[in-house]
Amino acid sequence: MPAGTVRLPLMRPRPQDIPGTYHRQATAFAEARSRAMPEAALLAGLPGHMAGRRVLDLGCGSGRPAALFAAAGCRVTGIDGAAPLLDRFLAALPGHRALLADLRHLPRRPPLAGRFDLILIWDCLFHLAPAAQRRLLAALPRLAAPGALLVFNSGPAAGQAIGMVGEEPVWHGSLAPAQYRRLLARAGFVVERMRLRDATAGGRSHWRARFVGRSECKARLPRTGKLKRYGPNLRG
């Protein structure tokens, strides 16, 4: 070590560091996403790929997942906290909307106007602290059109992990699957499918839920207060 140099302790990454990290590592992140997207077939096969449908991509990054919906004729609005990634989003998806915002504090209408037929939170929700994840899920009803589809991914269980974006570490954290189910029900979403460590999605654990409204969700609760399960694909 050169004389006069002070070795600083490595800082453990925190959720609040995420926007700055992606701002600095935007090029590395976008290049990595351009090389590999194992979940492309899964996302492209979602219901709702119809011309004119409105898609909200929360944590849109450089627009790789959003491009699948734009190619199908959907109208995409992307939100991200890293301006360099939004520049790439707009360059890749001319004619679509991009908003610079912190997902911990979603903007109210305007500028985020209207309701959406599909809400995507892909490779993003787990970058928020647990309390911020709860707030974001609770805010979704004001953005969801009747019958809207919500698609997101999480960790397979409650806990924290450290990943890498480019040359910097980033925080990951997830709630327990049962907690996500309760939060979705309170927000008026019925879980249609949940896959743990799905190989077709690059090992991601992902969710698909339908917005039916809080009153309908409450009506589907049995007397035990626990959500009924529907269909063979639900695993918690």
| CATH 2nd-level architecture | 3-Layer(aba) Sandwich
CATH topology: Rossmann fold
| Uncertain stretches of 5 or more adjacent residues | 1-9, 227-236
Alpha-beta classification? alpha/beta
> How many strands, which pairing sense, and closed or not: the largest β-sheet?
7 strands, mixed
Which value, in Å, is the CA radius of gyration? 18 Å
How far the N terminus sits from the C terminus, by CA atoms, comes to 51 Å
**Number of distinct beta strands:** 9
Q: Going across the biggest sheet, name each strand in turn.
A: 3-2-1-4-5-9-8
Total of domains: 1
Describe the structure.
By secondary structure, this protein is an alpha/beta fold. It has one domain (15-104, 111-219): Vaccinia Virus protein VP39 (Rossmann fold). The protein is 28% helix and 27% strand. It contains 8 helices and 9 strands. The strands form 2 sheets. The chain has a 7-stranded mixed sheet with strand order 3-2-1-4-5-9-8, sandwiched between helices. Helix 4 links the parallel strand 1 (54-58) and strand 2 (75-80). It is globular. The N and C termini lie far apart (51 Å). Residues 1-9 and 227-236 have low confidence and may be disordered.
